[in-house]
Amino acid sequence: MIRIPRPNPCVAVLIDLDNIELREGKRVRINWHRFFKELDNYRIHRAIAYKPERFLSERMKSFYLRSGLELYPTTGNSDAWFLADSIRLAHRVDSVIFLTGDICVLPFIPLLEATGVSVEIRAWRKNTSKLLIDSIQRFVPLSDDIISNSNGSKPSTPPLAHPIEDYTNSNGRSFRRNGQQR
Questions:
Q1: Does the reported pTM lie above 0.85?
Q2: What is the C-alpha end-to-end distance of the chain, expressed in Å?
Q3: For 10-176, CATH number?
């Protein structure tokens, strides 16, 4: 199935909180309002975050819900829930955005693309499997701009500048950070 790209695609954003809140071995708090500001050109159907329940305090649950995320506490590793929902939501959206650098999504990429859904990975570059980056048509490295300090302000280190960057995956496809084919 081939879908014609829309100027304002409908997306499902699926977030592996354990993976995305770990940057270079350190726990970080994401400012979700800043993150979603980067997705202004998308219509967000659902934004679902997954985290094992044993790591969720009431305070953290409240933080995620106030941030506009649907929160699914899981009984163990979140990967199975995360990936099952990607398949369940595929017929309702134009694109699925995974926030994870975990290679567990790799087998689901061709499955989702076969249904006509485009797949995008957003993750910390250093935490993302090279095989995953090479296997995806659209990889967007996360910017330090979305990290909050404990008081909610921006990090004290200057944010990474991220002009449009060119990437080539292992299939030889060239693409830019903003998703446009070259």
A1: no
A2: 23
A3: 3.40.50.1010
